Amino acid sequence: MTLSASPALLEKTALETYVPPAKPSLIGLSRADLAAALGGIGVAASQRKMRAQQLWHWMYFRGVQEFSEMTSISKEMRSQLAEHFTVARPEVVAEQISNDGTRKWLLRLPSGVSGEKAHEVECVYIPETDRGTLCVSSQVGCTLNCSFCHTGTQKLVRNLTAGEIVGQVMVARDRLNDWADRETPNGNRLVTNVVMMGMGEPLYNFDAVRDALLIVSDNEGIGISRRRVTLSTSGVVPNIVRAGEEIGVMLAISLHAVRDELRDELVPLNRKYPLAELLQACRDYPGASNARRITFEYVMLKGVNDSLDDAKLLVKLLKGIPAKINLIPFNPWPGSAYQCSDWDQIEKFSEYIFNAGYSSPVRTPRGRDILAACGQLKSETEKLSAREREALRAMAMTD
Ligand code: SAH
Ligand code: SF4
């Protein structure tokens, strides 16, 4: 498929019914599961571990897309593998490249129910001078309904599989030509960081996210170190400590409010896990230290959570937690009830936090012309009305 670089040519189209592939993909399997899959097609027990290791290298280090390219594996074995499996990633249905270099891929996934419409998720690549960050989704839609988030308004929800999560990183490496080969034995190092900040609540899809991130950070494969992988959660308290123990990645908390009444409204999960419990889970997060700080995300909503009293309370709440604060200008979407704080208010807020000793970078909105900024990820499985689409386009273009 040829993908055009021009966003204008890449209007999303309605999905036809998706027919899932007949052969399963090996992407997303752990080494042990790979060995078991090989056993299932008759590979001798004595060979499985070694073959799994070879496959691992070709799949996750070299990124090849066909068994025929796995030249260290015998021809016979390669055709046996191709008979039963693929190394397919999610299908890319559109690629958009923003004028600031941000890229967004729209990926098509099987619905999981025969005859039902296919699902879509988006995955966004944000290049910066010293790094390239990939924003990855964990679910189609989200079961939570944060009042300022567009993804939360999407009705259709399903968990992504580990393969679909790892597959997003692999699609990015494919499209950016970022795999290791003879000329570039360490890849081009374009995708250096991964953030689980796309669609969905990663801690509500714990097992798949864990399995996927262990593959992403495996240094014999994709090799993105755990310190460069960040998992963002709206506060699923019981799974926060598990994330530290079982995955060991960096943690980001979508805080957004410093009083329970307001957080109950903005992040309704707060009613189940209120601030005191959430902050205790952060204090207990394994591996947090001044060198490995927890990021607190704080979306700036005009007249709602952006006063200096809020800033003061924020500093007080985070006392004793190795923290950094990430102020996110609110990205409006059609029908949203909020406005982004005025710039001088964001600066005042940021200055207060800075003077209290916190680094408080304001996240620059990226890729607005292709609607790739935070909270604007909402797949077209649920169609926007023509009016909403116009409003989105106008917003994106005038920013
Ligand atoms: N569900 C997870 C991860 C995905 S959301 C979570 O909530 O943490 C990634 C980040 O984008 C979160 O901090 C979220 O609160 C923020 N976000 C959502 N909608 C936004 C919007 N419209 N403008 C700015 N940030 C938004
Ligand atoms: Fe879900 Fe996160 Fe959006 Fe809340 S902010 S609705 S948890 S994706």
Short précis:
The chain is α/β, with parallel strands linked by helices. Helix content is 32%, strand content 15%.
Q: Give the neighbour order of strands across the main sheet.
A: 1-2-3-4-7-8-9-10-11
C-alpha-based Rg, rounded: 22 Å
> What structural category characterises the helix and strand content?
alpha/beta
Largest β-sheet summary: 9 strands, mixed
Please tally the β strands and state the result. 11
Structure explained in plain terms:
It is elongated and about 70 Å long. It is 32% helix and 15% strand. It contains 11 helices and 11 strands. It starts with 30 loop residues before the first helix and ends with a helix. By secondary structure, it is α/β, with parallel strands linked by helices. Helix 6 (237-247) links the parallel strand 8 (229-233) and strand 9 (250-254). The site of S-adenosyl-L-homocysteine has 18 residues, from strand 8 and strand 10.
